[in-house]
Design goal:
The complex is a heterodimer.
Chain A: H1 54-69, E1 74-78, H2 82-87, E2 92-93, E3 99-101, H3 107-120, E4 127-133, H4 134-139, H5 142-150, E5 155-161, H6 202-208, E6 213-218, H7 222-233, E7 239-244, H8 248-251, H9 258-268, E8 274-277, E9 280-284, H10 293-297, H11 311-331
Parallel strand pairs in A: 1-3, 1-4, 4-5, 5-7, 6-7
Antiparallel strand pairs in A: 6-8, 8-9
Chain B: E1 12-13, E2 25-29, H1 35-39, H2 46-53, H3 58-66, H4 72-78, H5 82-86, H6 98-112, E3 126-130, H7 134-145, E4 149-153, H8 162-165, H9 174-186, E5 190-192, H10 200-207, E6 211-214, E7 220-221, E8 234-236, H11 237-246, E9 257-261, H12 265-276, E10 281-286, H13 297-305, E11 309-312, E12 314-320, E13 323-330, E14 338-347, E15 350-353, E16 357-358, E17 391-393, H14 404-422, H15 459-464, H16 475-483, H17 496-500, E18 506-510, E19 514-517, H18 527-531, E20 537-541
Parallel strand pairs in B: 3-4, 3-6, 4-5, 6-17, 8-15, 9-10, 9-15, 10-11
Antiparallel strand pairs in B: 2-20, 7-16, 12-13, 13-14, 18-19
The chains are: A alpha/beta, B alpha/beta.
Chain lengths: 341, 544
Amino acid sequence: MSDENAPEQKVKFYQKGTYTVGNRLVNVRQRSVQASMDRSNSLTCGHRACQGCGEALGARYAIDAAMRATNNQLIAINATGCLEVFTTPYPETSWQIPWMHSLFGNAAAVAAGVAAAMRVKGLKQVRTIAQGGDGGTMDIGFGCLSGMFERNDDVLYICYDNEAYMNTGVQRSSATPVAARTATTPAMGANPGNSFNSGKNLPLIAMAHNIPYVATASVAALHDLEAKVTRAMSLHGARYLHIHVPCPLGWGSAPHDTIQVARLAIKSGLFPLIEAEHGMVTATVPIRQPVPVTDYLKLQKRFAHLLRGGEENARKLAAIQTIADNNIKRFNLVRKEAPRV
Amino acid sequence: MYKPFAITLDVGSSLVNHTGSWRTERPVFVHRLPPCNAACPAGENIQGWLYHAEEGNYHLAWQEIMKENPLPAIMGRCCYHSCERACNRTRLDETVGIHAVERFLGDQAIQHGWSVTKAPPAHCGKVLIVGSGPAGLSAAYHLLRLGHEVEIREAAAKPGGLLRYGIPRYRLPRKVLDAEIDRIIQMGAVLRLSTPVTDLLEVIREGNFQATFVALGAQKSRWVDLPNDGSIPISDAIQMLRSLEDEIAPSRLQGKRVAVYGGGNVAVDAARSAIRLGAAEVTILYRRSREKMPAHSFEVKEAVEEAVQLKCLRTVEGIQQGQLVLEERVLTDGNEPLPTGRREFMAADLLILALGQEVDTDCCLAELPEINLLAGNLQVDATMMTGRDGLYAGGDMVPSERNITVAVGHGKLAARHIDARLRGTTYTPPATAKPATFERLNTWYFADAPSTHQPVLSLIRRQSGFEEVLGDLDESNALFEARRCLSCGNCFECDNCYGACPDNAIAKLGPGRGFAIKYDYCKGCGLCIAECPCGAIEAVPEEI
């Protein structure tokens, strides 16, 4: 049954393990890269990320899948940020792939250059990935990123979105959700936490560049994440993948809840899983077992002030629920269909 | 070595950084006791055999059952599956149909002629077993596996005890019963039929038996004395079920109005058999409410589907001029319904008593001074041994719940203690693991999957014959059912821990070998524990 050459096997919905990382009941090719004994472990042990780090998990998920998809012919360019700092304290590195760091804001530009160099050298098979946190991607590196998109450079840019500048002490970024407490948006005063009507939606902005591929993914949806990386690496030109990675330190969640928090972001509709090609949405992942946003918020201390009761808080919770409801409506996330995550 | 500007150290790997020192709690793989296993009176490792069955490895699954229970095709049909009432999956959708998969595996074994392959060790002792019911058969089987010689004495003309003379063939086809008994006999048991044991000590002396296991069952029907003018014949349910084994005359009760007095499984079996024998009207009379009926609710439901009528809260007070005199009872706050004095008359042609059974005090044990048989009082110790040294007993004879699975468990337990005795050692049951509760599962990873129900024989065929009521699961359904198992408390190698570790600190060892935790690097975040679907990893505080 687990024979490598067995014919494609229909995965029936009831099979136990359909949603788990591996499934010994389906043949090897259909299991996730993470279930494989010979996954590349691009990001290996000994890194200095906090306990339960979502970004460390998301980076290994994504880069291992890209390694599989490119037959291990991969170079990664890293923006400054947690991922860079906790993996490469001089002179150690946790990366088991060619990896390069330059500045906070120029990862997209450096990656465009690396991709050009590979082309000039005739190394067509060597593929380039740029990666960074939400700060390096959405704020500081945004100009370089937009340029990489509009030039359609042959790079997959992966943003690990933990919704603030975690490395420097949890300062607000343009990815910080409304009402969230950060070091620069404290939970005090008349309007505690990050202000409403702020921030931006980078996947939609990337789509507006009409690039070949844009997708969102989550550490709570491994099969979907791997499928998206694989799809991205099958295409050429500028591609963008936005991965939701909870940060126990910055979000005030328990380290063992990292995947559960990410899962609740999907189930509440606050983090929709979508896929778009050339500016058009091509697929969305329907929500299995939808939940209200409070289920997601209550696991995180950065939202604790919202859950202390009162009229004002009720109004804000309703506003956050509206954000989720609008996502569900916009992407038709609650529908009758067996989801793949 | 040349180094670029401002670089003084060689590149090294982060593997030198042992982040395991951050940890305050370590994850540890554990085995917890699944609720099905805990509930099985025969001590089956149900989660264990479902693990093999869901891979389609039916032979291995069957062998796993056979370690504990020699009668899977019978149990899958007739046991009252206490495992399914305990199943954690009931909290998600419906219980896993364990009995149906067990039956499927048992039938596969019969169909393919599977036998127990393990070669017995050198013959060790000689054991006498009196009674070939489920307890006796189980004891014989386990003693044979442990390398002993076994002789079974049976008073009836055919083996099986209650399985044959108490369970109607619409619940247990005789070819299944014969096949599973045969398999035990083929292992080398000596079976003597129509050989009642009267002088037990003489038989033991003559045969030079070193230990004896007695399981005669509870065969004597309770009787009640009624004011009776003789206008309605009275019979008892055990007698009726027994008579069905020898000969089935489909029209024996043609057109008769039959009343069955009692609310247990035997009463329901008798009522359903009466329907099949052509009775025009069959009524079960029971003195308490339907909810209090000791019969299993699915059997009562099937009986009602077959047109058996229920009259609860009634006692039979007498028989007058072809009518039963009934007294109505009324429910009170307490358990026992109170008589009301209101009389009611019910016409009937036959009254069948099914008021429970007792141990026959007039049996081969009656003469032994160490043994007290009165009022179901045959006491055995934790090793199933009676007051007499070397004499063991089990099944319905000894005080415990009376059903065939309990009997199989008794036989097994007695066999293990007899084995230890004959080898001059003692048998210590393995320590029981802590329970695998529902709260320990991460059920997100299990998709909804309602249970597959066995096809039920159409009503008309059920009412007119003794064909088996519940049909077989076909293979795809059996596989579906097996895969619904949540594997509570035991790793099923889903790779979640291996995948979910942000520190890459879990190593996968390969199929069947599970996982190892790299404690040099595990920071103790607990993600593997939280994301384990079956609760097979636990946090243990580190000594600091």
